[in-house]
Amino acid sequence: MTTAWEAAVEAQIRSAQERGEFDNLPGAGKPIPGRDMPYDEGWWIRSFMEREQIPSDLLLPTPLQLRRRIEQLPAELRDLPTEESVRSYVAALNTEVVAWLRTPTGPRVVVRPVNVEEAVSRWRADRERAAPVVVTTPEPPRAASARPRRRWRWWRR
Known about the structure:
Blueprint: H1 4-19, H2 43-52, H3 62-71, H4 73-78, H5 83-102, H6 116-130
């Protein structure tokens, strides 16, 4: 026996079908993704992370995230333009490390602050290695009789 509420819902579905609102929906006629795969309790979080392009590093506990950031530090610093920006980036990372060391949560993993001077010297060395070598060729000497080009200035017009 159907209730009045169920009948109203069925009537709305039927009228939507008649109007064609369910025609040409994305995925219509296609198999359900993952149907042949064994059941996985975390399927929804994986599909969400893939759809939203969220990095899997965010699922790691804090000390492992910090260690990964410290390991990737040379690559992160390579793109920074000035020594001051390198120092501020390393200082911000060290602030996060010290905050975690004061109240550690998660697994016991050794995480230590980064030495700023070592990071800056490594950044300098990376920049020197990556700096393009500019080869300049001298201009040929001008002939003595050649008249210099006259340059017009905007106030002489």
